[in-house]
Amino acid sequence: MSDHTSAAPAGSADTRDAPEYVCDVCGRAFYTDDLLVLHRGVRHPSVLDEAERDAYRDAYAAEERAIRSFRIRALGILVLLYFGFLFLYVFYAS
Amino acid sequence: MRPENPSQSDHDEDLPTDCSETAPERRGGAIGPRGARIGAFALALVGVLLLARGVAASNAAVGLSEASREGLAIPRWLYVATGGAAIGASALLAGFVTDRGFVNRVHEWRRDFGTRERLRGVGMAVGSLLGALLIALIVYRGVTGPQVSTINFAVVVVFAGGRAGLTMAAYAIGNPWPALNPFRAVTSRVPTGVVDYPERLGRWPAVAGILLLIWVETTTGVTSKPSLLAAAVAGYAVVALAGAVLVGSDAWFRNADPVSAFFRFYGRVAPLAWEDGRLRLSLPAMRLVEDWAEESRRDGGDGQTVVDADDTRLVSGLDDVAIAVALVWELTFSGFVTTEQGASVIRAVVGVGLPPILVYAVLFVGGFAVFYGAFLGAARVAVRRILTTRTPRELVVAFAPSLLVIAAGYHLAHYFAFFLSLLPSLSAVLADPLSAPANPVVFTLPAWVSALNIVFVLGGHLVAIWVAHSTAYRLFPSRLQAIRSQYPFVFVMIGYTAVSLWLISLPATTPAFLG
User: In this predicted complex, what is the ipTM?
Assistant: First the structure.
């Protein structure tokens, strides 16, 4: 439970401290503050107060930015795959 | 499908609580969820259409099947690589779908048909009578009928009807075995349960039973010798009845009976099922995304999750994971040993000086262990790469159901053409069980039917990617965690797709040293 936000996107495998952020509704533990905020917003939205809801929105927006970056890289790989196979087929299947 | 102006009260608990979810999707020009799915399907279709001719997939029932030999117009490595790339590309495309609400709506959609008590009662009664009659006829005709497998009631019904047809019905429509199971019908009406089923055995006996049944099917002559098949079916009947009387009907058929486990796991892929006593329709394979991720943990514990007494999950432990892996592996194994290349590999190894049965046993059990280990290893790698308190065991239990739709795809690839071509034989023996058909008819299928095998293999993997994606969203609070958690599994699945596509393109033969 926290009422401050951090801008770092969740999910990177940093140095492993003990997971300190514990959800008081279901008891799950998390390694970062962001993950706990997201967890509470997704799983227990009814117990959030106003500050927590703001924190959840901020974490969600930060996540969106990271997802957009993932999408661009994924799109690049897909384009490479497509053209790579296109040329393979042109070469080997004609 | 998305709410235009989401407000606080509209949401179920998994939707974000504001509307900034929808706006960035449109502003950024990112591909929406429908576009992503259409893109994935188009990619897979391109992969399939680029293959000039079809492939014929082999299966274990070589006593009955004659696979056609078709050539490929492109190099085999290119065909295999395309399949692997289709899976990888689909996994990337699935990462484009990030709307939690949409993902949940897809796998939570249900159409309710009510309790249908009378239908259920009649169905169970008719079904168990039918099942008892069929089992009796199988044993009787296996012994007294013509000892030629293609016209014998026992062989045709067990392999074309049961192994192929009933399994397809199980994952395409709904699990028929609880209705058909005569042993359960008998033992649930008599006092049973001499001893308590030891809980710590879990479903490992079912794992052993499934592996044993596949072993019997592959290495003994049951697919070509009807009397042997009759003996095997009679033996299974005795074991089932004795086991049910010993530990109780429910405990036996839930935990130890391999056939019930086989059909229950495949039946989870199907859209129709009885849930809480009501007949409900869901989207195909979407019941594989299980509710388990919402259970709570006791803190200070040893990492064990608390399991509810009336747990409706299909997979709740490593024994269930082993069943799912076994179902996928057995198709690959029987697909492998019934191909020419597989047979020559076996011959080469036996030529070194090992007994054939040992070679088959090592391949069978060893391959199963390798696949099981790869699946667990992928879970360990996933847990290391993302910052999560979920254990590898939790991941592997959560993602095991997605293996079942892969198994369904492989099963279709290996048995669909087989079932279709033997359909007239099956209906002939069913119509007149006590006399042998004079002139058994077998359909010869057009070549394009065998191209469907590739569609089935790839389709199974694509749906499994979606199921795993939905499951990952239930497991992790961060969507990036969910996407990242999939990478190791996708690599394992690309490898497995490559192997399976390669296998179904090989010409079939009888296994070396068997049959």
Answer: 0.81
Separation of alpha carbons A40 and A26, rounded Å: 9
pLDDT, one tens digit per residue, over B363-380 is 999 999 999 999 999 999
Residue B281 pairs in a beta bridge with: B111, B272
Is the CB of residue B396 less than 8 Å away from at least one CB of chain A? no
Percent of the residues in chain B that have a pLDDT greater than 90, as a whole number: 50
Task: Show the tokens assigned to B224.
Answer: 């070509």
Chains A, B: CB contacts within 8 A come to: 127
User: Quick one: CA dihedral A60, A65, A66, A70, positive or negative?
Assistant: positive
Contacts of A90 by beta carbon, 8 Å cutoff, 6+ apart? none
The whole-angstrom separation of Cα B226 and Cα B148 is 7
> Which of A11, A81, A88 lies closest to B89 in CB terms?
A81
The domains of chain A are located at 17-93
Label residue B39 exposed, middle or buried (CB < 10 Å: 0-12, 13-18, 19+): middle
- pLDDT of B90: 92
Q: Provide the pLDDT confidence category of residue B64 given band limits of 50, 70 and 90.
A: low
Other beta carbons within 10 angstroms of residue B293's beta carbon come to 17
Query: Are the CB atoms for B504 and B454 separated by under 8 Å?
Result: yes
Interface check B76 vs A, CB under 8 A? no
Report the residue from A12, A31, A41 with minimal CB separation from B17: A41
Give B57's pLDDT tier (boundaries 50, 70, 90).
low
Chain A contacts in chain B segment 6-45 (CB below 8 A): 11, 13-14, 16-18, 20-21, 24, 28, 30-31, 43
Q: Among residues A56, A68, A24, which one has the least CA distance to residue B13?
A: A56
pTM for the full model? 0.82
Which residues make Cβ contacts (< 8 Å) with residue B269, sequence separation at least 6? B171, B284, B285, B287, B288, B404, B405, B408
